[in-house]
Amino acid sequence: xxxxxxxxxxxxxNIAHNYKVLRSLQKKxxxxxxxMIKADAYGHGAPQVMQTLYDLxxxxxxxxxxxxxxxxxxxxxxxxEFTNLLVFSPLFEESLPTALRAQVTLVLSSWREIxxxxxxxxxxxxxxxxxxxxLKFNTGMSRLGFESQDAAELAKYFKASQGLELEGVCxxxxxxxxxxxDTGYSAQQFEKFSQIxxxxxxxxxxxxxxxxxxxxxxxxxxxAVVRKYGARPGLSLYGIKPAMKDLSEAQRTIxxxxxxxxxxxxxxxxxxxxxxxxxxxxxxxxxxTSSQDxxxxxxxxxxxxxxxxxxxxxxxxxxxxxxxPIVGTVCMDYTLVDVSALRESSKDLYSMRVTxxxxxxxxSVKAEDLAEIVGTNSYEILTSVSRRVPxxxx
Length: 394
Ligand SMILES: Cc1ncc(COP(=O)(O)O)c(C=O)c1O
Prior knowledge:
The chain is an alpha/beta fold. Helix content is 29%, strand content 21%. It contains twelve helices and 19 strands. The strands form five sheets. It has a seven-stranded parallel beta sheet. The chain has a five-stranded mixed beta sheet with strand order 18-17-9-1-19. Strands 10-13-16 form a three-stranded antiparallel beta sheet, with no helix packed on it. α8 (185-199) links the parallel β6 (164-171) and β7 (206-210). It is elongated and about 80 Å long. It binds pyridoxal-5'-phosphate. Pyridoxal-5'-phosphate binds next to loops.
């Protein structure tokens, strides 16, 4: 039983829907596809999202950390078919025996990681199987990855490696918003990546480069190169369509038609209402004063739940399909909204349902809207929803 009405409703059928839409954007069915379920599937619950996609036949998944992968191995220990868990963050030496035991696939960015893993594999009884790895290349993000100059030597190295099997080569876009244009930063990255790819022509491996925006771009890109590569979508799987730069009218039409459905809804209920006289102030530091007699509703959600304090006096919520403004400072456990406009409904507002993120009949509050007010992106809005908020799966 839940003792607090603040919940995140996760619509798994929308995950399944978005997955099918995204897969259909790939022009070839054999292209690599690896849903990103790191950070607890962007706050949606990694085991539940993984299970939904597993049931649809998906067998590759991407996480950031070894701990995320280990937890999923445990959660999925009863599954018949093996799932490939790609761990994108580099590991220190001491974690490698655990990684080998869990049969995760490491994405490597340096010779040092290769040496360490090779040594660990030698120590570890691998039986007949080698440890599968992917190599990441830096083509412009300058975060993780080998440099292009290393490609030839790496290609040679993996032909002879005793303990490691190369299964994929990848890169990551720094500005995928322009991935549909044939001039732009992504085009330069694709060009570098196709040069790297040539060195691995003797291998039957996966080449992957596309995040959500890259994958969407690949469905209407001017440049053919973008369609060659496999995808690792995250955000779009959770129903958020990334904005893109300089779309032509025709491209905008295609973009509009891509039907992604939000997966997360955040809701709460009114626990108290309060009449305020004109001139009375609310919440910490008295950042809002009523300009007329007002009715205020107290909601049990605050920055302790990941509802950003920067939404103070700026954000809006949806009650009875009307947008109502946040008044005063968002607290750790409470937020106040002005519901004076709902008086006309003459409904008892006690325990009334409040949509914090979600869709009403005529209005909505999207993660993107909150991101804009907070001055961040929708990734951060989604992953901010804290552990205190129970996830309810529908
Ligand atoms: C290496 C890598 N691939 C893919 C993704 C997925 O990106 P997106 O959520 O924009 O689809 C991420 C996310 O940050 C990432 O770090």
